[in-house]
Amino acid sequence: MKSPRIMLGTSLVAVAILGAACSSGSSSTSSTTTAPPSTTAGSGAAAGAPIKIALITSLTGQAGPQFSQSPQGFNAAIGVINAAGGANGHKIIGTVYDDKTDPGGVVTQVQKAISDGNVGIVSDSALMFLAAKYPMQAGIPVTGGSFDGFEWGTPGYENMFASDTGSVNPTNPPSTGLGTFMKSHGGTVAGAWGYSISPSSLQAANNAIWSAEAAGLKKGVLDTAVPFGSVDFTSAALAAKTAGVNAVEGTMDVNSGVALTVALKQAGVNVKVNVFPAGYDPSIIKTPSWSSLQGAYFGTQFRPVTLPNDGTKAISAALLKYANRPVSQFPTFAIYESYLGMELMAKGIELAGDTPTSAGIIKNLRQYSGWTGYGLLNYNIDYATTFGKGPNPSCSWYLKAETNGFVNVSDKAFCGTAISGKSGQTAP
């Protein structure tokens, strides 16, 4: 299933961009890590020949602060792959295309990536859904993050392989996971807030209440009329206090979540569990907001480096060597996504034989089972059976905000299963 906490933060960015799109006529140009000569729109490579792979992301524009570090994960994965002799003997030439967080820009850059002869595309962009039809029509494989939209599980887009969730259930059913987590931390009355302009935020808020009720919590507040980007939650906090809310999820961006948290404290709401679906990032620890976030819980679908295994050690070492990123600066959401997207693309190249083509990568990845993101995910993905479904159960690790940083709640992920019959419905 498609977990709201995977999609939420970046899809909210997309909503804001689309709202301004009518007044934006700009087109973006590519920013490249390496710039090989352009070729015709190729779809394959001779035995041992280098293979060109594109990364589509937002280095600049409104989503730039969240995605500007995306090339670190992409290039780190390429560095490791090439140091080991390449993917099935093929060195990878990576090029980063900046969509500038612009609706026209993402179309331009995806089309350019195809015409430049890239055999595959790694997506780490909240706007990929606006340009997904072009690689689909060209028969180009796409790997990466499925957080932008439902094309990753829509019939006709079988060229897309989500390296984080496997696929997406377009009905976006709620999961039992959040409610179970809230209950286990003393929650008894749930409150959820979402943006009125964002379908993903609105549905995530409804799903939060469905999940809470499935775990035995009562519904206290469900407010899906929050203006996009709002930081005024005075009235919301008073409503939460009146309803006895003590379990909170604001299915909004981090700024709104912080403002909600502060308002609840000022109103004297006794919050036992406050869950942030986005914001697990080393940079937030140094912000003035950090003191207000003490005791809040942050979810991540990727195994934290503070729970080391072979996968976390590998990504940390790769980032240190190829991106000069110290281990103390743990990977951000965007870095995890681009790293795993490139690693999955490399797996497809390996499976496609000595002379891999775009069609061969798609064919073989669609038959591939056993993807766990090299231990960075808590579930096994079978690309032969998961299309249109997504992981079920879906899992997240939770970390608690404390004085000096994030602290693991448990060494195990919290998992939940899809709740049938509630997709797209408003929680009562």
Automatic annotation (TrEMBL):
One Pfam match: Peripla_BP_6
GO biological process: amino acid transport
Keywords for this protein: Amino-acid transport, Signal, Transport
InterPro entries tied to this protein: BCAA_transport, Leu-bd, Leu_Ile_Val-bd, Peripla_BP_I
Region described as Disordered: 23-45
Gene3D superfamilies: 3.40.50.2300
Residue ranges of every copy of the Leucine-binding protein domain listed in the record: 50-373
Keyword Translocase: no
Protein name (database record): Unannotated protein
Native organism: freshwater metagenome
